[in-house]
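Box 3.1. Reading complex inputs
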Amino acid sequence: MEELDGEPTVTLIPGVNSKKKQMCFDWGPGEMLVCETSFNKKEKSETVPGCPFIYIIRKDIDVYSQILRKLFNESHGIFVGLQRIEEELTGKSRKAQLVRVSKNYRSVIRACMEEMHQAAIAAKDPASGRQFSSQVSILSAMELIWNLCEILFIEVAPAGPLLLHLLDWVRLHVCEVDSLLADVLGSENPSKHESFWNLPGNTQTLTELELKWQHWHEECERHLQDGTFASSPRLESLCKIMLGDEAALLEQKELLNNWYHFLVTRLLYSHPTVKPIDLHFYAQSSLDLFLGGESSPEPLDNILMAAFEFDIHQVIKECSIALSNWWFVAHLTDLLDHCKLLQSHNLYFGSNMREFLLLEYASGLFAHHSLWQLGVDYFDYCPELGRVSLELHIERIPLSTEQKALKVLRICEQRQMTEQVRSICKILAMKAVRNNRLGSALSWSIRAKDAAFATLVSDRFLRDYCERGCFSDLDLIDNLGPAMMLSDRLTFLGKYREFHRFYGEKRFFDAASLLLSLMTSQIAPRCFWVTLLTDALPLLEQKQVIFTTEQTYELMRCLEDLASGRPVRGEPGAQRLQEDIENTKLEMLRLALARNLARAIIKEGSLEGS
Amino acid sequence: MEEIYAKFVSQKISKTRWRPVPPGSLQTAETFATGSWDNEENYVSLWSIGDFGNVDSDGGFEGEHQLLCDIKHHGDVMDLQFFDQERIVAASSTGCVTVFLHHPNNQTLSVSQQWTTAHYHTGPGSPSRSSAPCTGVVCDNPEIVTVGEDGRINLFRADHKEAVRTIDNADSSTLHAVTFLRTPEILTVNSIGQLKIWDFRKQGNEPSQILSLTGDRVPLHCVDRHPNQQHVVATGGQDGMLSIWDVRQGTMPVSLLKAHEAEMWEVHFHPSNPDHLFTCSEDGSLWHWDASTDAPEKSSLFNQGGRSSTFLSHSISNQANVHQSLISSWLSTDPAKDRIEITSLLPSRTLSVNSLDVLGPCLVCGTDAEAIYVTRQLFS
């Protein structure tokens, strides 16, 4: 268990009487639920009116800042691009590409910083101005750390170019704050070292450089000892600085903002060909000298020190603690993983650290009402637990409109998450049925290939028909198309409607054979048989004989099946009336069928018939 | 297509629309409106793309679009249309239709009129109503037609408090989009793959014509009418298929073109160059379809910024009755002669492109990656 660095902050919940009542809470993925309980704190049984609300407390305010949203969106694009080109990264160009990606990330941070800075200046009240400014310094620190990691871990600058990169790093971060200070210290450097290093091409080897530098260093020392600059104390201290004299450098402490500026300046003048592995010695001593025992290192200092020590794990760990959002560590770790740096370190959860951080970050995104769409891609690139996490999260997104539901469904379908598709479609279909949008309900069940639900919708239609005597939503039933095959009940509905259409168009023979096939093919629900048979009546009563003898026998068989199979239910009163009606219908049908049979036999028996 | 400017705006954009230029003027598009969605607070915003010298006061770059003003909008912005130069109509996921008025002198937006219960559900047997999202709106001064998830069509008139005409239960499924054919006829598309034509002169709640796709009843999400030929209509479906219809001929589409890999959210004919069509989709791409017949010059070999040209011969279905006299290249039936050049306009794959609009040489689109892209050189 980590020790607390400071006192935990107290947040007051408005409306909750924490003095009198006990509170309860529960953790969520990025938030906390808090409410009052009915237990009193002290043993008095006062009936104090309780607070009826449940509060959602979010600790992560970063996610809600407008300007930071741009950071999340732009970095998402870079992240996905990096994962996609992973296969193409080979050989020498690999390092260059990874450096480019790193620079992209940093430019996004800088753009965000710039905008936040503008917002700080334009802020109307000092409190929000301060908030923006503190965000700017957090972003600035993030970029500082990232830049150093880029130099040490991704660029992997060897001795020689290493110092140049470090110089750029310092110049970028120190000089932007106060360019005036930079002029004093910075202007002396270029003339001396640029011509010295012969920057473009850099065809000199390290040893050649070292020799040259040694020569120059000795010359400086000679000048100092000869007292060439004795007349001007300023020039003399300048010479001492150029010799790397620590004391002289420390005298200029006000001009050096921080210990790493001191470090790089020191290295420039005393050890310009410093090797990466030796960096941490100088770093530690620079830190100690600069702080001089007056103050203790801040979290940023510890992170930078860990970087100089090439302890990636420590860098990530410290950053995770210091920063309130997983964004930085998730993206940096992912990039370092692509540089194949994490496997070489013996972490006890190995390369899963990348996945752990990405999962945390993505879960945080899913807690946001809008940024959840970004989270999907992050889960995609977590090979072990990404899919499972996505399945759990995606079902819980509130679906307020069909358009949002369609987007969520598309995400699920692209990843073959059929269970989630089915469950989401079922929820939407149920909602549609409740709102009497049967066409929508049907379209959702078609999408989910949910035969059971299609049956439910068809039953609704049939029930409506029985109650009202006519079909609602003919536009839907008439145009089912191949979707009709989804469920037997649906097929029946479509065909039954077709029967009505045939009858309306006076295509009696087609209607008759369709009706018969509906009954004999067993797709008609039993409760509907009476209706079907009753529908046969007008056909039986036509002047011309429509049903053949075969068909008539079939119909009679169905009728008898129906009559014999009817169960006797309780409730004598109304039931008897119902039965009477049923019996009358059956009698009429029997009569009509018998008559038809007679006519059909005659017709088929006579010469014209066939 | 040379330069396309992207700007991240911290809100997912559901709709983008150019402000119409006054008829007969030589101005190009300068201002566009956007609507956001899926935020706790959604906004309808107006943006300007005017030239700003090298760096403007906000440190933005030359050519980048700048926010002029915005106003809170209750619910997701499901559709957006300019009613006239100053007024914008917005359709909300709460079932409300709002007319916003832009005041150019102090650069603000205000609510001019609102119909709060334009769309709602009534449960079976219960008198209570719950709100239903309004999914599409189309304007033809002074009329506004809206459609929604409740399958209802409303005809409003600006400055009338109540709807002039309402067709309840016009559709048993969700109506996704609506367009004017020739006033007073409108055309709607729904989530069971049907186009329905409604004539407001007729009484009753039945459409005057129904057209549908053969085969699977794929939901249709967007529709646009050819600017000059009012019987030619393009629709986009859930499977990313682009269909061209001739509403005078039969009930099936004339052409079916395999386009995107996911839902096509919007399709637009270019208003002054109707041989050009634009579509955008959930798969994160925006395509420019060029059916103009001066093909040789167009076979370009640009390689920059993800522009890829492919030639596609379109598949035809039901070409039985198409006459030779039709001049529209979209309806033409000769696959050998007519090739459509398709170009992808966005530099890299992004999250869903929800909306686009074209006016003159300018195109604007908005994405779920919270970015707005603008180009002013469509036909370079």
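In summary: The two ends of chain A are 96 Å apart (CA to CA).
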